[in-house]
Write a structure and sequence with these properties.
The structure holds 2 protein chains of 2 kinds. By secondary structure, chain A is an all-beta fold. Chain A contains no helices and 11 strands. In chain A, strands 2, 4, 5, 9, 10 and 11 form a 6-stranded mixed β-sheet that branches. Chain B is an all-beta fold. Chain B contains no helices and 11 strands. In chain B, strands 2, 4, 5, 6, 9, 10 and 11 form a 7-stranded mixed β-sheet that branches. Chain B has a 4-stranded antiparallel β-sheet with strand order 1-3-8-7, with no helix packed on it. In chain B, a hairpin with a 6-residue loop joins strand 7 and strand 8. Chains A and B meet through strand 4, strand 5, strand 9 and strand 10 of A and strand 4, strand 5, strand 9 and strand 10 of B.
Chain lengths: 113, 115
């Protein structure tokens, strides 16, 4: 069973702080990793993806991948109240031809004004 | 900015009835997906569709489910005989063929309520 694990939270941070969201996955063959943001009652919105070990930055967001530890994280700098949402980690596994994403249960982030 | 659209936004049906959920993927995308999310649970993959055929499906996607691309723009999910446990948000997603990283962009979803 291929699993994606996330702490459900809530993770509470003050406005302007760095929020750190973590995700672990079970399959060493995993290829691509995605972070989605989901506001309550809405659909997942793609924030960014990463496939190589190391860091990838996009604006206030940084994704970090460590394949040896099977760990991917998302850092949100200068957190804003509008960042309050559930953050979903999704993994694409590398079985031949597979494009399905396996999602974690999400971490709820609360940014306190 | 192009986006995936879905209709209806909310569908209420009686158990045993057939429903069709509709999606219009982003116009230059070639890969199409359906996912569902039962209230309070994870987003779950149902099926992927490419080149007019199913390329992958999960164990959830049994004989009660089918997908179709009836024309050049629509992508549909049919549930033949709905069950109470089919109540969920159903998300359509699409992705382009370019790049191997498989970014998928989700539509706003259809909330299906089976009574």
């Amino acid at each position: 069973q291929k699993e994606v694990e996330q702490n459900s939270g809530p993770l509470s941070v003050p406005e302007g702080a760095i929020a750190s969201l973590n995700c672990t996955y079970s399959d060493r063959g995993s290829q691509s990793f995605f972070w989605y943001r989901q506001y309550s009652g809405k659909s997942p919105e793609l924030i960014m993806f990463i496939y190589s070990n190391g860091d990838k930055e996009d604006g206030r967001f940084t994704a970090q991948l460590n394949k040896a530890s099977q760990y991917v994280s998302l850092l949100i700098r200068d957190s804003q109240p509008s960042d309050s949402a559930t953050y979903l980690c999704a993994v694409r596994y590398t079985d031949t031809g597979r494009r399905a994403l396996t999602f974690g249960s999400g971490t709820r982030l609360q940014v306190q004004p | 900015e192009p986006e995936v659209t879905q209709t209806p936004s909310h569908q209420v049906t009686q158990m045993g009835q057939e429903v069709i959920l509709r999606c219009v993927p982003i116009s230059n995308h070639l890969y199409f997906y359906w996912y569902r999310q039962i209230l309070g649970q994870k987003v779950e993959f149902l099926v992927s569709f490419y080149n007019n055929e199913i390329s992958e499906k999960s164990e959830i996607f049994d004989d009660q489910f089918s997908v179709e691309r009836p024309d050049g723009s629509n992508f549909t999910l049919k549930i033949r005989s709905t069950k109470l446990e089919d109540s969920a948000m159903y998300f359509c997603a699409s992705g382009s063929s370019g790049g191997s990283f498989n970014e998928q962009f989700f539509g706003p979803g259809t909330r299906l309520t089976v009574l």
